[in-house]
Amino acid sequence: MLSAIHYVPSIAVVAIVPIVLIGLLIWGAWKPLVWRVLSVLGMGTGAGFLVWGILMAAMQEEPRFGSPAGIIAIGAGALVGSIALLVISFCGSCGGRKCRE
């Protein structure tokens, strides 16, 4: 009975997470600090997935989902995407300095 109380349908999580991420990306267009925070979280996630995939491949273990190569690819994609987001967050603003035109 207790497990039924804490049960969250996976379809709800799958539907909510992309909506929240898209909202944060749109909000980051007005506030670059949001993109910088998202990029730091993405870099941490990407590095974690890279390390996890490399360790799984080195120990020749199969993860619960996917393959070690897939986990490494997810980590690399998250890392590259978050670095690109960090660079984009610094483009287009003068940071309080007088802009040259």
Structure description:
74% of the residues lie in helices and 0% in strands. The protein is mainly α. Helix 2 (10-30) crosses helix 3 and helix 3 (32-58) packs antiparallel against helix 4 (68-90). The chain is flat, with a radius of gyration of 18 Å. It starts with a helix and ends in an 11-residue tail after the last helix. The relative contact order is 0.13. The mean pLDDT is 83.
The shape is flat
Secondary-structure element sequence? HHHH
Number of separate strands: 0
- Which sheet architecture does the biggest sheet show? none
Radius of gyration: 18 Å
Assembly category: single chain
What distance separates the N and C termini?
66 Å
Q: Residue ranges: pLDDT <50 for 5 or more in a row?
A: none
Strand content bin = under 5%
Helix proportion: over 70%
Count of helix runs: 4
Structural class: mainly alpha
What do the pLDDT scores average to? 83
Q: Give the count of structural domains.
A: 1
